[in-house]
Amino acid sequence: MMISLCLALALPKVIMAHYMPWYQAKPFHSDWGWHWTMNHFNPDAGTIASQFHPVIGPYDSQDSDVIEYQLLTMKLAGIDGVFIDWYGIDDLWDYPFIHKASQMVFEETKKLGMKFGVVYEDQTLKYLIENKVVKTEDAVADGRRAMRWLETNWFSGKNYLRIDGKPALLVFGPQYYQDGDWSKMLSGIDVSFFTLHHRRANAIGGYDWPLPQGGNEGCEKERLAFLDRTKSWPVYIAGAYPRFIDIYKEAGVHGSWGTVTDDDGKTYRHTLSEALQGSAPVVQIATWNDWGEGTVIEPSKEFGYRDLEATQSLRKQYVEPTFRFTPDDLRLPEKLFRRRKEAKADRETLDRVAALLAQGQCERAQKLLDISIGT
């Protein structure tokens, strides 16, 4: 236990944001996707499937301008990278859309010098089987194919997140595959495997996630129980969250999962502070942009940049005393995004602005943006 714990502590603290690549929006695409409508709301009429609203408006996850804005904003907030919520490589519903958007995010993280990791949604197998895309007897082979795809295309990337020297793979559950299935699916693939809430077979550790059924008090109790379990694990991934206020009941999808209140930002500051002070080498923020569940730290009309300003402050306090970016810097990617959407925008100049922001040269980027706006 002492050797494993020391190994975990020796790694640099990495802050990752859980990222949903599933939003389809007009005018980038011809229709609004389910995650903005949930078959109930109408973005054309000003309503979306969320209690909250993105500061840039409802967006498309395959819009490269959106991806640039999101990742640059994260970087200036002190977030090192993203855990992509990934649905595999099979063709059902919006899974191909999610996969393409995920590939775009991966490429942009490489460009910006940010980390990338995968949280695999193995619940997809239930729906793939029900819709006759995959046969029950072929489920493990299908999962193995997905793992091989990850190994070939993402795990080998220089910016892919590694823990204990191996690519980190998280599964949201497992919800479908059993322990023996994972042994077959990961055979010969060297990863640091993490399962939800508990350390299951084949896993090096687990990761935390907010459970809103018991409200703020119950969620905090579950968080502490998780931390107690980690004492016997080689390593774990800590979690932080701002709130949980979903839209499912109002949308008629199903009942609400429960509510964790924002408490004027105290929920996020508390959970992130605790996570950054713990022994976990990686902290996952749940989430960057799950608008349906309201767990967003992405800038919103309701909260503005408050949670990202808190991220900056806490990174400087607990992780990187020399962290230099300011709340004013956080607004620059949004300004860049809005300029890109203007009909007469000078793309070449704006590409230079993006490069400067990626290099942390915010003052030069601001000056160039001002010149661009004046032309």
Provide a descriptive summary of the structure in words:
There is one protein chain. The N and C termini lie far apart (62 Å). The strands form 2 sheets. Strands 1, 2, 3, 4, 5, 6, 7, 8 and 11 form a 9-stranded mixed sheet that branches. Strands 9-10 form a two-stranded antiparallel sheet. The relative contact order is 0.14. The longest helix is centred in the N-terminal third of the chain and has 18 residues, at 95-112. It is globular and about 60 Å long. Mean pLDDT is 95; it is low at 1-11. It has helices at residues 2-10, 34-37, 64-77, 95-112, 124-130, 139-155, 179-185, 215-229, 248-251, 266-277, 306-318, 327-330, 332-340, 347-358, 362-374; strands spanning 14-19, 81-86, 115-120, 162-163, 166-171, 192-196, 205-207, 237-240, 244-245, 259-260, 282-285. Helix 10 runs parallel beside helix 11. Helix content is 42%, strand content 12%. It is an alpha/beta fold and 375 residues long.
